Amino acid sequence: MVAAELAQYEDGRVHLRYRLDAEAVVGVAHRGAVMAQLAFGESAQQAYEDIRATVAQSRGRALAAVNHEMVRAYWEIGKRIVEEQGERAEYGKRLIEYLSERLTKEFGKGFDKRNVHYMKQFYLTFPIVNALRSQLSWTHYRLIMKLKSAEQREFYMNEAANENWSSRQLSRQINSHYYERLLSGASSYQDEVRTEVKALVPRARVDEVIKDPYVLDFLDLPEDNRYAEKDLE
């Protein structure tokens, strides 16, 4: 780590000079970290792994609970709007504006007129609440609601839930006409398409839920580090 070497002045005198070996310092530091880890032993390492798993699992359940409650709340809101509107279409438009204005003042931007309108459409599209998939976010459902047929909506809803697709991945598969490609070919081709999609689409991470702007709006959290809505749709 510290090396000594002889050096000579111009007048011929000789002195001992010390040189710091940087690589040796790094090596000692690394060995120190390794020794510290070994000092705790495998038992401490296992304790860390167990605690890490507990934190990760609890965090995942907490985020999933937030997402589930938000989607369920939006379905309930849509149901109440439809009940209040009845057959009065013009009244329904004014009702959405009224509710949006008041809810936004009290709960934040997650209740803008456009999103409240989607809540109404959500209930009309999925009138049976038990048919909803708890794994899917509001962003997933907003994408699915744009599909024309009930068969398409059910297909993408189940695929996204079963394969753990993020909303971006769902959007990508819709735009690539995944559903149509499966219907257009023989069973062997369908297997090939499914294999291709599974290989190309990574599974969604749990922390993506809390980065969803709709979740942040629902919780009325600050705007730092948000994704833009256009990036998700």
From TrEMBL:
Pfam families per the UniProt record, alphabetical: DUF1016_N (PF17761)
Organism domain of life: Bacteria
Cited InterPro entries: PD-DEXK-like_domain, YhcG_N
Domain YhcG N-terminal: 50-181
Name under which the protein is recorded: DUF1016 domain-containing protein
Organism of derivation: Adlercreutzia caecimuris
